[in-house]
Amino acid sequence: MQHSLLLHRLVLFRGLLDLPVYQKLSLLLADDGTDTVRFIDHYTDFVAELYSHTDNISEYIKKTVYESDNLYLRQIVENKPASPHITSALNEELKILEELSRITPQDLPSPCPESLPQWNTTTIDLVSGYADRMANIHRTGYGIFAAHHMFLVKDNQILPLRYPDPQTLDDLYGYEAEKNKVIANTLALLNGKPAVNVLLYGDAGTGKSSTVKAIVNEYASLGLRLIEIKKSQFETIPTLIEELASNPLKFILFIDDLSFAEGDGDFAALKAILEGSAAARTKNIVIYATSNRRHLVRVTFRGREGDDIHLNETLEETISLSARFGLVITFQKPDRDAYLEIVSSLAEEHGLTIPQETLFKGAEMHALRSSGRTPRAAKHYIELLAANTTK
């Protein structure tokens, strides 16, 4: 069959035709070469677009096929049997895409000048490879969840973070007991065991948010994903839970720097979600939140006096939200010895050879100028030293 017709036969993978590489490849394959200038334009347009991803057309096609969201895949992850027609269409389309993955400049309808940029190909088996992908879909995911592991919500849509925080667990010093509790709960989630919502509470700069992001980076290959939710987006959480409930991956809905003012309407919304509505009872989603406030709500003395005839009940309601988290982990500021141990470890990591007395004296002075002894203060101090040290 002519290469120019192959892409037009796609049904299950028709969404690939929205990608610029496929669009430009389609134009190139359809060009009969009668107009040399037009042909060269189509050729270079395609190569330029391919090069923005890779110089290997086979690897590009394999990646986009494996990450594609399609009807067959949806039926599989929802435990619905795919009809024989759909299964047959899947196999035929995989063979079509495999054939396209072998195209070289010499296979084009018009002779291609050797002076034009070339691309590479490799041998791939999409039929068996796709079957393996489906068998491991709980770790690899599909669609945007296959290509990325951290996300945000914008205009009620889940969008990938193009440049996620690269923080790793090895980058975090101290707080081993606290980190291990979060890790244990996360591994329970990944292993299909009961996992609870977690509140990481403590002083600013103690590594609460970094811990969550480092854990996601650590276990992304096992099927863990993070979706960051802003406080103004709490009303979207039930919809997100419903949308993600049948997804084979595991999700952390992450709320950073959580706190409320008195009378904040978002308080009741989050409380209802944490109490467990019918939509929230899923085995693949947990909520992790960080806060500098133990009880999450800023209560003023004026609010304590008030005119509520059931004042005690109102105050209990105000401080009850944190109790809705199954696990509350406190990140306290380190004492002097723990702080200096973090400083020493970071200095060693950066290859600094400053005398310990000088290093520690500067670290203490930096802590006084900052928000006190915290891992963040230690990190900033060492980074400043490293930036001004000539090796």
TrEMBL record:
Enumerate the transmembrane spans.
Answer: none
Report which superkingdom the organism of origin falls in: Archaea
- What InterPro entries does UniProt report for this protein, alphabetically? AAA+_ATPase, DUF815, P-loop_NTPase
Q: Which CDD domains match?
A: AAA
Under SUPFAM superfamilies, the record lists: P-loop containing nucleoside triphosphate hydrolases
List the SMART domains: AAA
For the AAA+ ATPase domain, which residue ranges apply? 194-310
Q: Which PANTHER family match?
A: SLR0930 PROTEIN (PTHR42935:SF1)
Protein name as annotated: AAA+ ATPase domain-containing protein
User: What phylogenetic lineage does the species belong to?
Assistant: Archaea, Methanobacteriati, Methanobacteriota, Stenosarchaea group, Methanomicrobia
